[in-house]
Structures are given as C-alpha cells and as structure tokens.
DNA sequence: CATGCTGGAGAACGCACGTTCTCCCCTGCT
DNA sequence: AGCAGGGGAGAACGTGCGTTCTCCAGCATG
C-alpha cells in the first residue's frame, strides 16, 4: 500500500471516528484498527495526533463546502440559491450518521486547549459566512441580510446536532424566506 | 467548614474551571486546588467526577435562566420582552469570562459519550425554547415565531462563542425585530 | 491523660492512551 | 542463497488523571 492511499484510509477512519464519537474519546489505536494502517505508518504520516486532527478538519472543510456549493449551484435563480442552502442543510441533517457540525463540536472539545483547532474552526465559519455573503450579493440583496441568514444556519446546525431531526432546517428556511421577502 | 459550604465552594471552582477550560482538561485535583476542598471530601460530596459535572450544569442552568428571566421581566411591554432576550445575550457576550454557551460546549465535549450530559443539554435547550415560546404567546404573536427566534438566539450563542464579541447579539436582535414586525 | 473520631495532605494505585521500540517477515537486489 | 531495508504486529514506556488509601494532627469525650 503506497503512502497516498494509506493517508486516505487513515483520514477516512479518523473522519468517521472523530466525527461519530468525538476526538478525545478516539485513540490512535482505534484509528489503526479502523484504517488498517499500522501505528508506525500513522506516525510517519502524521507526527502527532493533533496533526491528524487538523488534517481531518481541513479535508472535511473542503468537502463540506464543496458539497454545499455543488448543491446550491444547481439552482439557477440567484434568490432561490439562498434558500437552497437551507434545503441542503435539511438533507444533511437527515443523513443517518449526522451528529451535528463537526467544527462546533470540535470547538467545544478542543477550542479552549488548542489554538490551532480554534483557528481552523474560525476559518471554516468565516468561509461559510463569506459564501453566504456571496449568495446575497449575487441575488442583489443588501449585505445586511448575510448576518441573520448566517445566524439562522448556525442555530439550525447546533440545534439539529443536539436534538436530532431535520425540523431546525425547515424552520430556518421559513425564517430565511421571510427575511428575504422583507428585504 | 460544613458540608453545604464545601459543596458550594466545590461547585464554584468547578463552574469557573469547567466553563473556562473545558471539562476534560480540568482534573479533580484542579478542583481541589481552586476550591480548598480536599479530595476526600470532594468524593464524599460527589461520588465521581461525572456527578460533579452534572451538578455544575444543573446549578448553572437554574442561575442562567434565572438571570435571563429577571432581566427580561424588567421590561413591561410584552413585545419588547422578546427583544430584551437579545439585549441580555449582548450583555452576556460582553462579559470578560464569556466563553460561549456552556451547554453547547459540553455537548461537543461529552454529548457522544455521556447520555446523562446529553440529556441535560437537551433539557436546558428545551427549557430555553419553552421560555421563548411563553414570551411569544404573552405578546399575542403566532407560535410559529418561536422557532426562528430560538434559532437566531442559538446561532448568536454559538457564533459569539467561536468568534468572540457582541456583534452576533445585535445582528440577531435586528433579525428578530424584523421577524416580529413582519408578524 | 487515654481514646476514638473527623478531616486534611498527599502518596499510591490502576488504567487509558500518546508515542516509541523491538522483533520479525517479506521483498527485491546482487 | 545471502542480505539490506521497509513495513506490520504489538509490547513497552511515560504520563496524566480518576479514585482510593495511609498517615497523622486536632479535638471531643470518659
């Protein structure tokens, strides 16, 4: 097995375990068991657990925002694109392994201890907010709409993580529709 | 020192340490050092760390909702009471030791591992949402407003926790005002 | 004074886990 | 065949920490 695929398998295992059970309750030995990559190799690829955590968050960030953008951009009407964000949230919340926002959870777990993780979370949230801002601008709507829409989306994510279910997404979409309609 | 004050001092130390640094990174020995309550006594009062964590969350829940209600009820106009919730959030976010919502953070840290903690978080959020619902009803507004207001508040809490600052509260208040105005 | 109880200080224990080390097999080269 | 090197399995090591235990000082009681 070459390095590149070992790295991918390690990250696959890390993502499913870290996201599903939390970071601190997953040991490097669990990663080895789930990935089939030996400890020796794991430590060659990631010199410490924290590096693996960062690589996990980074790869998930790219994929998460990619999936969102891909979904949203199937919608040609620029104003409806904004609401499509909430449709996508609803789909996400409904996935069987959904367990909340990985960054919010990681921040609760490690934000106070690891400045690197805290900064990755801030960067992810900044990127998401900027993306919303670009959709608002693309629809010709006032920039002041971005903040409220962002807060609705964050509230939906944290609530869906805690209580489960897709209802937070539909509530957020209706509120977003109302805000957009009110200009 | 009698049991009751030892218990209070232990909980004071637990609250400031757990909230400020996260639960898992605070050891029982740190609690002892900060509270002056010996390990032996700590374990008499709380048979395991998890009990202390639960007592911390429970006492904080009572106090947090008490402070909120006290602030809100100073406002006589029932519609303005709803906005007062966001004013109070702004004050809270501005406190020097503010580090996000204790329950959201605890959920990220322990939600996947401790069903007791997860249930306490859900109960706290349910109580907060029910309180918002009572304000909405008290103002004679449609119940459908509760969900969006709740999501705005949650989004503001999580965002203020991650990025710091009071701006999420003002953004949420403006959005709330707009939703209330639109009926 | 002797005796027994309470509670504090902190050592000790056990375990989990991040990280490193040892041993050995396998493979490819000469 | 002989051998060097990479990689796997898993033991070993060090540390942190939850929990318990030991020891002793202080104090109330006969």
Helix content of chain A: over 70%
Give start-end ranges of low-pLDDT stretches of chain A. none
Structural category of chain A is: mainly alpha
Name of the CATH first level of the largest domain in chain A:
Mainly Alpha
Shape of chain A: elongated
Q: Quick gist of this model?
A:
2 copies of one chain form a homodimer. Chain A has 183 residues and is an all-alpha fold. Helices cover 77% and strands 0% of the residues of chain A.
Your description of this structure?
Two copies of one chain form a homodimer. Chain A has nine helices and no strands. In chain A, helix 1 packs across helix 2 (28-35), helix 4 (49-72) runs parallel beside helix 7 and helix 7 (115-138) crosses helix 8. Chain A is elongated, with a radius of gyration of 18 Å. Helices cover 77% and strands 0% of the residues of chain A. Chain A starts with a helix and ends with a helix. With 183 residues, the first copy, chain A, is mainly α. Chain A has two domains: 1-47, Orthogonal Bundle (Arc Repressor Mutant, subunit A); 56-181, Orthogonal Bundle (Tetracycline Repressor, domain 2), CATH 1.10.357.10. Chain A has helices at 3-21, 28-35, 39-45, 49-72, 78-93, 102-110, 115-138, 146-163, 167-181. The model of chain A has no long low-confidence stretch (mean pLDDT 96). The interface between A and B is large, with 47 and 47 residues.
């Amino acid at each position: 097995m070459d390095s590149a695929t070992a790295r991918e398998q390690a990250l696959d295992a890390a993502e499913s375990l870290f996201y599903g059970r939390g970071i601190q309750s997953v040991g490097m030995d669990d990663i080895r068991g789930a990935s089939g990559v030996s400890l020796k190799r794991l430590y060659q690829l990631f010199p410490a657990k924290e590096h693996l955590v960062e690589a996990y968050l980074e790869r998930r960030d790219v994929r998460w925002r990619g999936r969102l953008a891909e979904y949203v951009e199937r919608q040609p009407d620029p104003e409806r694109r904004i609401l499509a964000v909430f449709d996508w949230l609803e789909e996400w919340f409904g996935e069987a392994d959904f367990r909340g926002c990985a960054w919010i959870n990681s921040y609760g777990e490690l934000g106070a201890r690891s400045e690197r993780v805290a900064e990755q979370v801030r960067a992810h949230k900044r990127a998401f907010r900027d993306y919303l801002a670009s959709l608002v601008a693309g629809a010709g709507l006032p920039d002041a709409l971005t903040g409220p829409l962002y807060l609705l989306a964050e509230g939906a994510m944290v609530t869906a993580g805690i209580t489960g279910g897709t209802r937070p997404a539909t509530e957020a979409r209706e509120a977003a529709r109302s805000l957009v309609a009110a200009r």
